[in-house]
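Design review, sub-item: ligand-bound model
Attendees: FS, YL, KQ
YL presented the inputs for the cobalt (II) ion complex:
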Amino acid sequence: MEILKYPNPMLFQPTSSVRVFGEELQILLDEMWETMQTRGGIGLAANQVGLSMSMFVMIGPDNARLNLVNPTIETRSRTFANLKEGCLSAPGDFVTIPNRAEWVHVLYDDEKGNVKRVLLKGLYAVCAQHEIDHLRGVSFMENKSIPKSVRKGLCKRWGIK
Ligand code: CO
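KQ shared the predicted structure:
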């Protein structure tokens, strides 16, 4: 799969909920996983590969493969992670986003449509928040908690107004 780069308009459109579970969905998730691994990413949202579907793949704790379909953040810590993050749609740029929670509980459907919940901490939590933003059509570099000068530089570099 090809990874879309900023400022591709697809990256700014909120994705649609996934309603049909089955082999075709599994194939898409498998292809996303391979694409993510080939590019050395730790997470990849469906709209980054041109699919308007609310789902992402990520490497979880103990190198587990996580498929998160229709994810929502249920609860988040009031403490912050303060870790650098990057994006396969903006390769080479890394930034600390001050308002990322240190841990999150994510409610999601697995690839078979079973409702699940996972607690993610640290880098895993930051990754999930980044990917869920993607699915809402929100880019990490527009995050208002980033110092304005840094944010403006990033947005300018990637053609975001
Ligand atoms: Co990204």
